[in-house]
Design brief:
The chain is α+β, with helices and mostly antiparallel strands and about 240 residues long. The protein has helices at about 5-10, 10-15, 20-30, 35-50, 65-100, 130-140, and strands at about 145, 145, 150-160, 165-170, 175-185, 190-200, 210-220, 225-230, 235-240. The two termini are about 30 Å apart.
């Protein structure tokens, strides 16, 4: 399962709607994900209320009245969850191929000419839970970078079989801007690891104090990397991280 599917499967797991393979995969994910464990604990009461209403039946077998409405709701939810998992799996596979082949961002460049994604700081799309980039950064050993114009930040990096994975923390930047995280090899080869758009409010600045967290990958092995750079679409260097 992809990261997005793992997190959104909490409700389906609590209600017992996952197939056996998905259930086992989610339970393995649950061991290492504190955010999902918290959410599952919060949903325990809801699952208890719904326990015992019986399996989801086809519409021609269901009873009438409120109980039938609940069964309809659960059946439609299960169908929707299956469609979401199937679609997200295909997106994740396409993104993984892009990452390995060209060192591009996971899930940000699935089609030619796609616009850079609008980045989210802490407390963005995942609410109070940390996203994968922030979680990786917090759990790792950050390497501080050298910024310009009040920009600060750092990277957590790891060596992978396909190259290098990195999580970025960036503060002191305002938009609108389009930026990229680039790995620079010891031979001078530059590879784009991820790209994003900075909204006018910016990140890690007065009025918008939350920093930006992003992650991406490069096909360059970590031992061959000389440094990482955050640059704008106009070529201005915002941050340099030496390794």
């Amino acid at each position: 399962m992809t990261s997005r599917v793992e997190h959104t499967d909490v409700g389906a797991y609590a209600l017992g709607l996952l197939d056996d393979d998905d259930r086992l995969a989610f339970e393995a994910h649950l061991l290492g994900c504190a955010a999902c464990r918290r959410e599952l604990s919060e949903l325990a009461g809801v699952a208890g209320v719904l326990h015992g209403i019986g399996p989801v039946e086809d519409s021609f077998d269901r009873p009438g009245g409120p109980e039938g409405d609940v069964l309809d709701l659960l059946r439609h939810k299960k169908d929707a969850d299956r469609r979401t998992r199937r679609g997200t799996f295909m997106i994740g596979m396409a993104a993984a191929v892009t990452l390995v082949a060209g060192g591009l961002t996971i899930g940000t460049q699935l089609g030619a000419g796609a616009q850079p994604p609008l980045a989210h700081g802490h407390g963005g799309q995942m609410g109070e839970h940390m996203g994968p980039a922030e979680q990786f950064y917090v759990d790792g050993r950050p390497i501080a970078g050298k910024g310009s114009g009040g920009v600060t930040g750092g990277l957590v990096v790891e060596s992978k079989g396909w190259g290098t994975h990195a999580a970025l923390k960036l503060s002191g930047v305002t938009g609108p801007l389009e930026c990229e995280l680039i790995s620079v090899s010891k031979s001078g080869e530059r590879r784009v690891m991820t790209g994003w758009s900075v909204p006018p409010a910016g990140y890690g600045v007065p009025g918008s104090p939350d920093p930006l967290y992003m992650h991406g990958g490069s096909a360059t092995p970590l031992e061959d990397v000389d440094r990482f750079e955050v640059v704008t679409s106009e070529g201005r260097r915002l941050l340099t991280v030496d390794v």
